[in-house]
User: Fold these one by one.
Assistant:
Number 1:
Amino acid sequence: AATLREAAEATGRFMGTAIADGRLSDGTYTGIASSEFSSVTAENVMKWDAIQPSQGQYNFAAADRLMDFAAANDQQVWGHTLVWHSQLPSWVANGGFNADQLDQVIQDHINNVAGRYAGEIAYWDVVNEVFNDDGSLRQSVFLNTLGEDYIADAFHYAEAADPSAKLCINDYSTEHTGAKSDALYQRVSQLLSEGVPIDCVGFQSHLILDQYSASDIQANLQRFADLGLEVVITELDVRMDMPADQAKLDRQAQQYRDVIGACVAVTGCTGVTVWGFGDADSWVPGTFPGQGAALPWDDNYQPKPAYTGIMEGF
Ligand code: XIL
């Protein structure tokens, strides 16, 4: 294969990237984004604070730009994300809504956002990061006001707003087995038994260099796939302590290869998305001080060993 998207396509899978709206005017960036990837996820512009910053006031311009970019480049769009405690405007987080009011706020948001793009979005992260690391449900305005039913309700609202999108639950530190993954497994099983329209599970996979087990990831993806759901690696990156060196970059390449391989070994694992492709655009240095070099292209958009690792993983 000449590109990652071709390598993925040869196995019947998609290869995606998060897209930073601010980079769409850079030809080097858009050249790689369009040629190497068959799926795009909005890194920020479909989040609640970006798309409905005050009640009833929607900013669709940047999200529309991503939709147009995807259409021009024959790419699917992964919608990210409808209900999340973070990047949530304070009019929702601190709005003092009672349960009926907040339920209506969520329904309106999903209707307007998922409804606008109905038929054009392949997958939606309906809920994002609803768990704590110990597997309990995360405290948020949603849980605290509505109780755990807000999760099922969000899926029903999304199904009504866009019946053709596949509807996913997405989280981090769930790619390996463990308490958080077990809680996700129980939750998803329960939602399915209640007839909640859930189609897929997203495993963010913000990994740390040398901290992974490909066989454990594969087994974990497989148990979710065995529930009849699609499983997807949705936000892959592999960060390392800076500075990077050749030995670390080579181990990173192996790690990317092994994680892609874990997906390819699971029939129900239908694609992989990296959380950006060039190190200069990565969220990692700003979020994890002292760490970086997490993506398959370097600061100058030159492919790293990790690029070849992904290619060989498919
Ligand atoms: C991150 C973006 O990459 C940053 O630009 C932003 O400042 C914060 O959010 N899990 C998610 C993503 O689901 O939305 C987050 O994206 C990274 C962690």
Note: Residues 207 and 244 are 16 Å apart (CA to CA).
Number 2:
Amino acid sequence: MRILGVETSCDETALALVDITPGRAVLLGEALASQAAVHALFGGVVPEIASREHLRRLPLLFESVLERSGVAASSIQGVAVARGPGLLGALLAGVSFAKGLALGLDVPLVGVNHLEAHLLAAGLEQSLPLPAIGLLVSGGHTELARMDAGEGAYPEFVILGRTLDDAAGEAFDKCAKALNLPYPGGACLDALARLAREQPALPKSSSLFSPPYVDNDTLDFSFSGLKTAAMTAIQKQPGLRREALCSVEEALADGRREPELARFCGHFNMAVAQALEIKTRRALERHGDARSLILAGGVAANSLVRERLQALAVELGLAFVAPSPDLCTDNAAMVAHAGGLLLASGRRHALSLEAIPRGRA
Ligand code: KG4
Ligand code: ZN
């Protein structure tokens, strides 16, 4: 079945065509336009601008994805769209576009939960041994979920824990912003932290920051305390903050010249990674029947987070599943894939499908 995926939940406008047959999904082509450069001017996503950019770019990307896939619009057999969670206006742009296409092409429409699509994304590259514990770490969400085989091809999801305040990616981005690193700052902070790890003196756990919200027995997360601790540390050591907003290359050059900057990022990254590892270990201990650990979302691209969670899976004798970096951040292939599994399980939506910006989509 040839499914078109539509992703507009935040600041990436993306379309992808995926061919799904039982047990196999092949990405035929994708077209993605990041709005990061537009929002970088404001230091964060501006919802109104995001919606308008999606509306402007979707028709152009549709032409590109067909061209790249080498298929005609008439061969699309289903349309899948991320219906939430996300920014309402941004989601509506994608949902309206998807409805128009499904109606025009006379094919089924299915709304997809963006978070579940992230957790299933690695299914485009490998099989996902279930039951699994999934850790989704993105700019807007941090969730631990249990995934079990469902009645059809689509798994059952049970949320075990979530962030009480900031998401892990948000914490990275806010810390990076306070240092005047380029937006979105997670990847740049990661690169600086890697420089610090190349210096042998950095210990395996952070002496500057404690892993936040771990002295409790819940599977929830909280990163706002760590964020505040980082802001306070930056105020006390003003030399850490770049004088002006810099590029990734400039930040890395600074990090080589100023070991304190790289070490600060290393400590911050370590505290986030430790908190994620501690809560995931707890979830795996409570769900001893899990066969795999799935790591997904933009922060899954973080080298230390990936390293530590992979080591945890190996220690517990579990399969470690994480999508390749392009499938970690927001993309439409994951939406097409999740939508294909839903359609294969006999689930579809009417044209009255609504966007669900908050809660379980
Ligand atoms: O999943 P995603 O693309 O979008 C959301 O659904 O939020 O995640 C984006 C988040 C941003 O906060 C970004 O800074 C973070 O993922 N991110 C990283 C890295 N690459 C992206 N955070 C830490 N280390 C990275 N290498
Ligand atoms: Zn996302």
Note: The pocket of KG4 (ligand 1) is lined by residues 10, 138-140, 169, 172-173, 184-187, 190, 297-299, 301-302, 329-330 (CB under 6 Å).
